[in-house]
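Tutorial, part two.
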Amino acid sequence: MKIALCICTFRRPEGLRKALTYVEKLDFDGEVIVCVADNDAQGEGLEVCRALADSYRWPIFTTGVEQSGISFSRNACSALALHHSPDFIAFLDDDEWPEADWLQQLLKVQQDNDADAVGGPTISVFPDNTPASQQRNEYYGADLRVADGAACQLEAAGNFLIRTSTLEAMGPDFFHPDFAQSGGEDLAFFMKLEQQGAKMHWATQAKMNEAVPSDRLSTEWLKQRVIIIANSRVRVMRMLQPGLPATLIRCAKTCALFAQAMIMSAVGLISPPVAEKARILRWKFWGKFTAHMKFNLSRMEGR
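Running the prediction step on this input gives:
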């Protein structure tokens, strides 16, 4: 069995170095190649790969991506991996590092269910003294919280494995360029997979760790993340589920979200925990509303 591991990088040379260090420690006896796409003109990620290549456990293949945006980077990395004809392709990001059995766990669920794609949880690793309430916030990390092996629609591209033939059928624009600057390209990818009848399953033990830098603990960062995710989700749905009935349903749900946010905001005047939830709902509403108004919001720097 031959596996290609895809890593997209952007101005995180030390994060990439750490990811590659942990990838090299994977408990896996099959054939592995590592494909890295660097989306920064300075090529710091490419330098990291060149420095490691001679002594690295597995072959490392790289490509520079001139067009700015995560979709273009994922597409270039996908094309690079497909060029080497693996049986499966797995994805992780340059601010993540896998557990030693990560690849085994993804493949186990794939084989048990004859899955086309398998995803696993991304677990946030916070700085010391981060409040427990903040660590529980669902906007950090990614976890569908379903049973091991459960059929599901995947959503995040930072931890998943896909059958090569399944990915190949999505090309050449595997990840839609409309979401290159905002994010949401992974949700669009997986929604399209579901529409095409692909079998997707969840591997609870295929764990990926993700560093949370201190600047992501600010209220402003969280606000922007909530708004942009909500904005991207509506845009994805509008693209893949067009038509008046679907549009009216989405608008009705956004109106209901607004009403819920206002009610909880009123209750929050006397209950701080409710006030925090209401704040998230207000941000979420604003993201969805701007998408309905055809505004495409861009993600924060340091994607």
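DSSP finds ten helices and ten strands in the chain. In part three we will examine how such features are distributed along the chain.
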